[in-house]
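To fix ideas, we reproduce below one chain and its tokenised fold.
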Amino acid sequence: MLSRDFWHGLFPIIKWMSKYSWKEQFLGDFMAGCTVAIMHIPQGMGYALLGGVPPIIGLYMAFFPVLIYVCLGTSHHISIGTFAVTTLMTGKIVDQYSNHEIANFSSGSLLKTDNISSNHFTSLEVATAVCLMVGLWQILMGILRLGVLGIILSDHLVSGFTTAAAIHVVVSQTKNLLGLKITRFNGPFRLIRSVVAIFSALPTANPAEALTSCVAITVMAVHNDWLKPWYGKKIKFPLPTELFILVIGTIASYFGDLTSNYDIKTLNHIPTGFPEPRVPPYELLPRIMIDTIAVAIVAYAVSLSMAKIFARKRGYEISNNQELLAQGAANVFGSFFSCMPVSASLSRSMLQESVGGETQLASVVSCFLLLIILLWVGPLFESLPLAVLSSVIVVALKGMFVQFRDFTSSLKSSPLDSAVWMATFLAVVIVDIDIGLGMGIVASISVLIYRGHRPYAATLGHLHGTEMHVDIKYFPSAVEVPGIKIFRWAGAIHFANAETFRHVVDSHLGPYKSAALSSRIASTAEKESLSIQAAHVKYGTLDPLASTSLNSGAISTPAVSIVTIEHLILDCSALSYVDLSGTKVLTSLHTDLLNDRGVTLILANCSEPLIKQLDRCNYFQTFPKAQVYPSIIDAVMTIESSNQFAFNNSLNSPIVP
């Protein structure tokens, strides 16, 4: 029999609703739901245009899939629905496989694309098929526990990708902003071809639509950048300027008869009620199977990143795999009700949390208000100009363009991350969205491999008056222990970087000096040099005076400049993993150092998992466990105790020239 924890994990709504406080939380959820519902209207209708489907589809996406996510999702604050990037990626697939594009929803005229084929599917059929396939991919990844796939899209990759995608969105909406009639392009370099077509068609622009767009964008920009920060300190709830613009534009278009007088395109027919449930064309699924993988991963990664931000802020946990199942189920359910793939929206999610939203009950309130729009209010927006709707989309993209700061800020802090950002950005802008995403993933993985191939390595020295051993490069006051090289490798030793590890160790050891040559140079008649060597023993007591006397002796006695390294201590405190290839390199290092240089290899600060891993690889069959120490201090003091014993014997033995 299935346990209670299983049902709570599969349906998180059971758990959080059982603890829901109607007195303390409902008011915040109600206000947040009302505010987000108002925002859903312009964003839903606008982003639906990006997918090449009627604007009403955007409202369907804010209703049907959301109900499923409320029951299955683990995030309390993200707002599921339309998102510019995923709808744009869906629109690319719709362009490729549909037999026509609805470029003007008002007149019903159809502008054909430049890649006419024998496709017989409508735009809506392709969009619902994409939604179904994306949902199936996400459910499959959730079942296979592949929620960790979200980490392959680093923050800089997502930032560069969404910024470049925002440029695609702006270019795609330019025809509505200026009233142009241009062909929609598909395939690589379509953004460049679209820009060329736009400049070629500029003489045919409609001045009335251009003026309408300019006024709408200016009003919303002034409100968002100047007025909103001013009154936001006094009023908790932001004014729905985008909705006001839609209402004013609709009223002006209706009473001014802008379509007849100025040839301004409008939405025209908006159906009421629920769409008839339909099964997406299953024969199309094999053809779009590969294309939808990128959409599934991007939609999940964006939603997961938003969910984690709010989870850390509010102190609750997110289940990666459950999020995959929740979004997959939401998309599968929505595909039967004329929906495109859904994802979380940053602007709506931030708004929902900032105005007091506590749980996903705010989404239920939002769905209830949108139900009223779908059943009765929708036709009132039939006179809405497409130029106004496109203006809302462009203004909403400001947050994505601000992400250029991520690139500039990472230039100094992390040049490799900035390279990933720019590589992804340029690939998406110049080539195409899906190809650019793939190139960005390759760049991100390449940086990850490079960093793992050559991690941080350092020679450590003793910090006076402490038990600390630090990087002598960053702490000039740290002193190396004469005759002992302490080396730290921060990372793993595996097949990909084993040779690099060996090369770096040799470079830190320096040029080879045989013990026989060093003994001939150090004259046995110079007893003063031996007394200085005796001062090394005091280092084991961590006495600052010992280091002082050592330094003074090293300056006054030339013999001390000839130092033979007799022990190499490998600090394993930052060594995370060693595979079979790494074990072989450690074995050869131990053998070569001992036979060629007379240097003894010592391991210090080894973790228990590392010891067990080395033992499983039979490392201790050739390397004595007596040369493994729990800390650097223990290793150094043991070595110096041995040196003290050897020094006392040397004083009592005759000197042979």
In short: The CA atoms of residues 401 and 413 lie 21 Å apart.
